[in-house]
Amino acid sequence: MDTSVLFCGVKFSNPTVLASGILGVTASSLINVARHGAGGVTTKSVWYKEHAGHRNPVIVVGDHYMLNAVGLPDAGIEKTRVELPKLLKESPSPVIVSIVERSIADFEKIAEEVAKLKPPLIEVNISCPNVDDEFGKPFSCSTVEAGKVTRAVKKRVGKIPIIVKLSPNVTNIVEIARSVAHNGADAICAINTLGPGLMIDIEMRASVLSNGVGGISGPAIKPLAVRCVYDIHRATGLPIIGTGGVTTGRDAVEMMMAGATLVGVGTAVHYRGIDVFKKIIQEIEDWCKKNNVKMVKNLVGILDSRSMKNVKLVS
Ligand SMILES: Cc1cc2nc3c(=O)[nH]c(=O)nc-3n(C[C@H](O)[C@H](O)[C@H](O)COP(=O)(O)O)c2cc1C
Fold this sequence. Notes:
Layout: E1 5-7, E2 10-12, E3 16-18, H1 27-35, E4 40-42, E5 59-61, E6 66-68, H2 77-90, E7 95-99, H3 104-116, E8 121-125, H4 143-156, E9 162-166, H5 173-182, E10 187-190, E11 194-197, E12 200-201, E13 206-207, E14 214-217, H6 222-236, E15 240-243, H7 249-258, E16 262-265, H8 268-272, H9 276-290
Parallel strand pairs: 3-4, 3-16, 4-7, 7-8, 8-9, 9-10, 10-15, 15-16
Antiparallel strand pairs: 1-2, 5-6, 6-14, 11-14, 12-13
The structure holds flavin mononucleotide.
């Protein structure tokens, strides 16, 4: 079975990709994930300067979801300069470097520095609050700011394709997707975590996470992620990394049918271990054989549109 897919001109041996933030930025950790079968690996979002995260506890897991308030900790570009060359040299799978910042000027700086290290793809995490915005709203929540940051990063990375990662915490994700597409995004990753959500320790009458609230990920957000991917695929036609709750091969097939070329796998590493990639690929292959699909890439966007005939795009 041919499980390969082409994404922005980069060949992935299979559509599974480690989602950002799940297993760090170090070369040893990410090479290990690639050796365990991931078609691609995404680094944790890197900052220009060192960035402290939140105090523990930062993660709590329920049966069908995870809440995290890790707070995007990172050692900054110096550490990336050490780890990334080794990762790029030794990873058997393509590497996506995720970048994050709180102002457009800083996004330009980190984009330029990361581009010098020549990764095949750069993901732009725009879910962070924009310090230049009057209300500190995340870039991902404004069509104008999401467009501006996309355009600014695109100018700094030469020919490296950029994937803009969108947040589901908006009224109309299609509007944001159209704006980043219009401003030069080569691809989209959808979705980042939902929420935030709150888990209460009822005996203590206190929130479980030190930060109070945390982003929701895992199986509970999958239907939302699939719908976002479907809408974005239809509205922009850009290649998509469909991310959010994918835990099994069937989930991955569903995400691809909605329009994803690659499938992000994050929280499922917690539920199924590091072998989750191999397991998902095997399950995709089994499904394809049973359903007479010869090549995995043929799954992309094949949701029968007649079943969606009563659904209108929000914009
Ligand atoms: C512990 C944790 C840390 C995360 N860190 C990042 C990050 O640094 N950058 C980012 O873009 N997304 C980050 N995410 C979001 C994931 O990449 C992914 O978009 C989200 O968890 C939904 O996918 P999942 O349900 O497969 O986990 C993080 C998620 C978790 C659970």
